Amino acid sequence: MTGDLRFSVVLQAQHTAEHTEAETLARAVAIATEAEALGFDCVWTTEHHFSGLHKTPSALTMAAFLLGRTSRIGVGTAVTLLLLHSPVHVAEQVALLDVVSGGRFRFGAGRGSPTKAYAAIGPGRAYWEHGLPETLDRVLAALRGPVAGFQEAVISPRPTTRIPVSLAVGSDSTVDIAAARGLSTQQFVRQDLATRAARIERHRRLAPPGEYRHGCWVFTQVEDSQAAAESVLRENLEHGHAYVRRHRRRPELLTSPVPERLATVLANDPVGTPGRCVEQFRRLAATGCTEALCQVEMSLDLDSSITNLRRLAAEVIPAYRRA
Hints:
Layout: E1 6-11, H1 21-38, E2 42-45, H2 59-69, E3 74-77, E4 80-81, H3 87-100, E5 105-110, H4 117-120, H5 125-130, H6 132-144, E6 165-168, H7 172-180, E7 184-187, H8 193-206, E8 214-219, E9 221-222, H9 226-247, H10 258-268, E10 271-272, H11 274-286, E11 291-295, H12 302-322
Helix pairs in contact: 1-12, 3-6, 7-8, 9-10, 11-12
């Protein structure tokens, strides 16, 4: 049933020169509290290091703050860049957030991209390529029992619930890592629906029986006309592309020009009129995705982002659920 799709919000805290860093973060917090008031399932925080484009270097810290500012909505990380942290310390923080939030915290993990953070913070590119399974296993072991290799070391407080854990999957190999450990998945933006469906199906075949959440990030912009929605999306993509080009960060992104990326998003994500967005969410649900992680900060302006969120809640989600 289409109504089985959950609707959540992902907070990118994407920055522009027109705003201070404090204003950018305040926008993300305001969106989170409004998402709770509107009945969204979860808000998800992100992690970016040494970035002029995004302002949340700690997904866990931002999640902790939002758990303190809210009372009902789930709060999760999308994702904690696991290989840049001590796995046992991550497990301690995850357990603590589970306890103090009354079970509202959801833990999303991944390795991100091989940016300079892996040289400045982490153990280098080679570890990015090969270290995820071992690091993930150490976190999971610490959450479930003694720290691996240290029987007398048990994290405290202990989790009071079975904490929902998901892994960011951007390849067959990471799908396999998640499936082998019985973890749910997250897929990021700029993925076509066929790729999303193939990864979810691969997980279904390989994972042990159980209930899994498969979250998919989607650009989300609700407007009265398709042209207006496309204009907001184009400006958002151009802003990010200009930053990458200016600072020469992740040069591989420059191989995909804005028009090509725009076409991919428009073909797969809920950007357009309310009716168009409903149809795109239906198509997303048909891939096996169970949770839409909606990126609503498209205009990078607080008032416009809140309006977008409210229109999603009032005009799109009810129509989707009536289908």
